[in-house]
Automatic annotation (TrEMBL):
SUPFAM superfamilies: alpha/beta-Hydrolases. Coiled coil: none annotated. InterPro entries: AB_hydrolase_fold, TEII, Thioesterase. PANTHER family: S-ACYL FATTY ACID SYNTHASE THIOESTERASE, MEDIUM CHAIN, THIOESTERASE. This is Thioesterase II family protein. Belongs to the thioesterase family. It holds the Pfam family Thioesterase. Residues 19-245 form the Thioesterase domain. It comes from the Bacteria.
Amino acid sequence: MRSTWYLAFDPRPRARLHLYGLPFAGGGASMFRHWSRHLPPWIELRAVRLPGRQGLHRRPAFTDCDRAVRWLADSLAESAAGEQAAERVPFALFGHSMGAMLGYRLTRLLRHEHAQLPVLLAVASWPVRGAEAGMPDPASSDERFLAELRALGGLPPELAEDPGLLEMTLPVARADFRLCRSYAYRPEPPLPVPVAVFGGTHDPVAPPGSLAEWQGHTDDYRGLRLYPGGHFFLRDHLPAVAASLATELAVVRGEAVIHGEAVIHGEKAQASMPEDAPGLAGT
């Protein structure tokens, strides 16, 4: 039976790992449309479709973190129930901003319920203690809300110039930022899951110092990778981020890695640490 809670733009029935992508506030599955071309054939990218958008328009968007995570855990369990135990494919999580927060809380819930854990949790642009600054206020007027989104870099020109599209997407974006504000940091023991962290060098929501704190929340810290840019550094560095992520997945899964490089569709893709999608883009 075809799943409705995620979309695989490039289905790979023989994949040895499923990578679930969780979007930023105001974003959707489309942010992962081009990811598969940068990932090796043994990984299938599954873009999560959150309620309120792309395929689940009739369901209200979540405004509470715990309810959203419960839905994600139930969706994962439903997918697993449709597979034979011997054929169950391992999975990993990648989330950008709000998606990183959801991925983290989902992993915590799965551990609490003694469920299957991801082989890797990859988080981008979200401090483990929560974002305390730089986020648009969902209670502000449309004019101010849009101005704050624009200042963050989350309002694509094609969307800003389309009043009809803005009218459709603004309610989802507001709901997502309410969801972000519902997040409450809880001190807990380190996760028994490898954690890899990604961020922008000039991100006002998740500055590098705040991202470094992830190290204390896992028994297997895979490092912090910083890329030039702000909250949406991913737009300019997708090939490098995907290659780095593929290498980490190869390491934890025991797949082929050649001198720190992952094999991507028969070619080598550099996966070293750098030194220096349609829809409302939030956190």
